[in-house]
Amino acid sequence: MPRTGPAGSERCARSGMPRQPLSPCVAGERLCSTEEATAGSGTYTRHGFIFSSLAGCLERKSEDNELPVVSVVRDSESQLLPNVGAVVTCKVCSINSRFAKVHILYVGSTPLKSTFRGTIRREDIRATEKDKVEVYKSFRPSDIVLAKVISLGDAQSNYLLSTAENELGVVVARSEAGVQMVPISWCEMQCPRTHTKEFRKVARVQPQFLQT
Amino acid sequence: MAAERGTAAEALVGQVVLPGDLLLLPAHYDEDAEGERLRLSAGAAPQGRLLCGPGLRRSGAGLLVTKCGLLRHRPAGGGAYWVDSQQKRYVPVKGDHVIGIVTAKAGDVFRLDVGGSEPASLSYLAFEGATKRNRPNVQVGDLIYGQFVVANKDMEPEMVCIDSSGKSSGMGIIGQDGFLFKVSLGLIRKLLAPKCEIIQELSQLYPFELVLGMNGRIWVKAKTVQQTLIVVNILEACEYMTAEQRKQALAKLSGN
């Protein structure tokens, strides 16, 4: 029985005739058979047909000698994902006695459209004297931290990050009075208005990355 | 920066100050009168080391008031300024001894209600003589007297019932019976002052056991229920009675 899809994209359900390019489709929709095209990114093949696995726009790239490639694209640009070993900029959202939860804002120098969640465990904060680390003396909520991705994690868990290097750690932090603090050593920062010192794990930013 | 000019701190001692008031310190405390240069050297403490107590925060060349109350000053030892304020809501502070009520047992950790914004956690190993095999006998609803080891605005507070050398020193589970009630934090501080008259006068009336928690909770136990309730009522009323009214009330009771 003929199905009517979204406006402007009717097709016959029996044979799955080719659809117009850049038409929207939802996850699970059957696009065409494997005899007419090859599956590209965002699709999978079952029972001799190609199905979409994303909700997005259909794209067909026809090549001269081979079958055209059908793929489903969600956004016009693909999202940059942090890889293992990438240096990311993140903001601390909550701390615990065992770990700190962060939102990943930048990968390298590229801002992310949607933030990812990361975790910095207590034993990954420093490289030396890991037992004596106190999370409260290394990070506080709303600090901006440079960290390195050490694991992508499972489906439910977040990215695992580490700050166990001299160049990683807190870059920007506010004191309890609300003023941005000045780093005075690798473990302390001072507030310029109230002159109180607070403990943080401070990053030694490389000179070529400092903008003045 | 500050929209209004500050007033000298000495002029306001003993008067009511409001949050946002700027107090100027006398000139000899500040070596550079221009104000806000950040001194990072270790010897930056001024000549008499001025202590900035609760309710005050250093701000540039003076002190900024953050709580409303009476400004107090102690000239000894370089001088100290602080604000005496009335407060009923307790905010956990590291090192404070408090009375907590056990609300839940979650694995190895007890959850205690201490009157703050979050329940505190207490590990079962934090009692004197507790091991993994020898667990303390704590039930939901028990009263525990302990101190905070971790207490800040970013993390959940943690309590222990042993001190740094591993001895309990009076902390632990508070026994059966007795009466728990809540008073304001100012009264607790008054009762904890050395040689408090209220406690001395009450102890001449009846013998009783007393536990004071910095979170405003007091536990009292006397020989009979009636005596316990009398002590509770006197302590609650002490906040608003003058010394003479208190002596009259106690004289009436000991006369009966």
From TrEMBL, chain B:
One of its GO terms (molecular function) is RNA binding. Coiled coil: none annotated. SUPFAM superfamilies: Eukaryotic type KH-domain (KH-domain type I), Nucleic acid-binding proteins, Ribosomal L27 protein-like. GO terms for cellular component: cytoplasmic exosome (RNase complex); nuclear exosome (RNase complex); nucleolus. The keyword Ubl conjugation applies. It is found in: Cytoplasm; Nucleus, Nucleolus. Pfam families: KH_6 (PF15985), RRP40_N_mamm (PF21261), RRP40_S1 (PF21262). Residues 178-226 form the K Homology domain. GO terms for biological process: CUT catabolic process; DNA metabolic process; exonucleolytic trimming to generate mature 3'-end of 5.8S rRNA from tricistronic rRNA transcript (SSU-rRNA, 5.8S rRNA, LSU-rRNA); nuclear polyadenylation-dependent rRNA catabolic process; poly(A)-dependent snoRNA 3'-end processing; regulation of gene expression; TRAMP-dependent tRNA surveillance pathway; U4 snRNA 3'-end processing. Its main location: cytoplasm. Keywords: Acetylation, Cytoplasm, Exosome, Isopeptide bond, Nucleus, RNA-binding, rRNA processing, Ubl conjugation. Residues 15-86 form the Exosome complex component RRP40 N-terminal domain. Component of the RNA exosome core complex (Exo-9), composed of EXOSC1, EXOSC2, EXOSC3, EXOSC4, EXOSC5, EXOSC6, EXOSC7, EXOSC8 and EXOSC9; within the complex interacts with EXOSC5 and EXOSC9. The catalytically inactive RNA exosome core complex (Exo-9) associates with the catalytic subunit EXOSC10/RRP6. Exo-9 may associate with DIS3 to form the nucleolar exosome complex, or DIS3L to form the cytoplasmic exosome complex. Exo-9 is formed by a hexameric base ring consisting of the heterodimers EXOSC4-EXOSC9, EXOSC5-EXOSC8 and EXOSC6-EXOSC7, and a cap ring consisting of EXOSC1, EXOSC2 and EXOSC3. Belongs to the RRP40 family. This is Exosome complex component RRP40. It comes from Erithacus rubecula. The lineage of its organism: Eukaryota, Metazoa, Chordata, Craniata, Vertebrata.
